[in-house]
Design goal:
This protein has one domain: Zincin-like, CATH 3.30.2010. With about 140 residues, it is an alpha+beta fold. Strands 1-3-2 form a three-stranded mixed β-sheet, with helices on both faces. Strands 4-5 form a two-stranded antiparallel sheet.
Length: about 140
């Protein structure tokens, strides 16, 4: 999961610049996430609140970078926001408010894992945000 780990490193630096240090957060491959992804083409990652690990399906590596970063940003936001009345909505609102430069939105994606699948309404960021992450100009 080298590509995902590289993006996570850049996102952690970004989150720290926003006042949310998440230095201890790591990423791990999860068979549970693989099984979820096999049943749900949108199921790539999950977190357990209170633990600094993002559990990822191997298929995450097959996505375009703007989707990898969108999904990882979403999971990091779960760690910051915690539990609420509507955790998914709370996380999306937090990302939109605190990280407007990410251009966070939902989009459909067709990917191969190993056969072609379509994930509708998947977390995504803009390509310009990816460039900013890579050049440390966020």
């Amino acid at each position: 999961m080298v590509k995902c780990e590289d993006w996570l490193k850049l996102l952690k630096r970004y989150m720290k610049s926003k006042g949310f240090p998440l230095n201890r957060v790591s990423l791990t491959h999860s068979r549970k996430a693989d099984k979820r992804n096999a049943n749900d083409p949108r199921g790539f990652c999950h977190v357990v609140l209170g633990r600094p690990t993002i559990h990822c399906a191997e298929a995450l590596e097959t996505l375009p970078d703007e989707f990898i970063v969108g999904i990882l940003l979403h999971e990091l936001a779960h760690m910051v926001v915690g539990e609420g009345e509507d955790p998914e909505l709370d996380v999306d609102e937090w990302v939109l408010e605190k990280c407007p430069e990410a251009g966070y939105h939902y989009a459909d994606i067709k990917y191969a894992s190993p056969k072609f699948r379509v994930a509708k309404n998947l977390e995504c960021v803009t390509k310009s945000f990816l460039k900013k992450l890579n050049t440390k100009v966020v």
